[in-house]
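We modelled each protein-ligand pair independently. The example shown here corresponds to the NDP entry; the chain sequence is given first, followed by the ligand as SMILES.
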Amino acid sequence: MTKIAIIGPGALGGTIAGWLCQNAAHEVIVCARTPLVDLRVETPVGTLNAAPQVLIDPAPAQPVDWVLVLTKTYDVAAAKVWLDSLVGPGTRVAVLQNGVEHVSRFAALLPGQAIVPAVVDIPASRSAPGRMIQQRLGSIVVPEGDDGADFVGLFGETKIDVSAVADWNSRAWGKLCLNCAGAVAALTQRSTGPVWNDDLEVLVRGLVSECAAVARAEGAVIPDSLIEGVIEGARNAPEGAGNSMSVDRFAGRQMELDARNGVIVRLGKKHGIATPINALFVTLLAASGSPWVT
Ligand SMILES: NC(=O)C1=CN([C@@H]2O[C@H](COP(=O)(O)OP(=O)(O)OC[C@H]3O[C@@H](n4cnc5c(N)ncnc54)[C@H](OP(=O)(O)O)[C@@H]3O)[C@@H](O)[C@H]2O)C=CC1
Ligand SMILES: CC(C)(CO)C(=O)C(=O)O
């Protein structure tokens, strides 16, 4: 029996928990802030139901084999109390969040601990506590190695495409090229497709090109076709298509602004790369009503 604790059963965490519960060899423990009774995930291949153990108090939690962190990046500090209870000498911690700083974000909280960074491409939303909708089966990518292989093994009974790759850095930056463009929808509260015009394309292209330039300086391989693909996706985004940052802004919550756009500005400065469009969106979104917490 593999004990897996999931911290943060929101849109993505609830979806991942629902899938992992389908394997009888897993004991899944859901670590929640808002109470929930059970899980129901509407997936592209049917509905998953599960009733794992749910904890809302870290005190009774014990060390587990795997901790999967699925809070927003701005809630990582608050998740520390869970890590203090759940992490023992043999525990591996996987971070399933957006951005490129998965490991450094946790280094101070978990000194010397094995941390498995995961790039997740699974669009999911939550309609109520424990009620998730997974729009696409999607994929998860972790770095090659023993921990990566074991992480992939956790998902053996699921229909999610989970793999370990040699060049994780390029995958993480490639995903950031997509996510940084999400700042437009977060700011306008509209999908980009229905309001597309040449001026909007200049902004989307600017966000993504700046990200790609910083990515390449950080050693990532980003083909020009990836940049064009993101722009094409934004051009064709149908009405209602948002992202997890626009969901946060719409709900009046904090945003992962630093993890998704601020990081491009910060690392751009390090490399002497100008990032004015990302800086503009960081400034405007930070001033838009939701506090920017790093
Ligand atoms: N949603 C998506 O489509 C995708 C999201 N991602 C990334 O995945 C990560 C998670 O995103 P998403 O699932 O959308 O976020 P949500 O806001 O939907 O979920 C975050 C969850 O973390 C919980 N939480 C916050 N603090 C704590 C705490 N101290 N203890 C326990 N639980 C806590 C929240 O509790 P509460 O229930 O009280 O809100 C919520 O359930 C982000 O980094 C995001 O960028 C990546 C790919 C796709
Ligand atoms: C764009 C998407 C849905 C891709 O998985 C995402 O990463 C997010 O909404 O944060």
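The chain has a mean pLDDT of 96.
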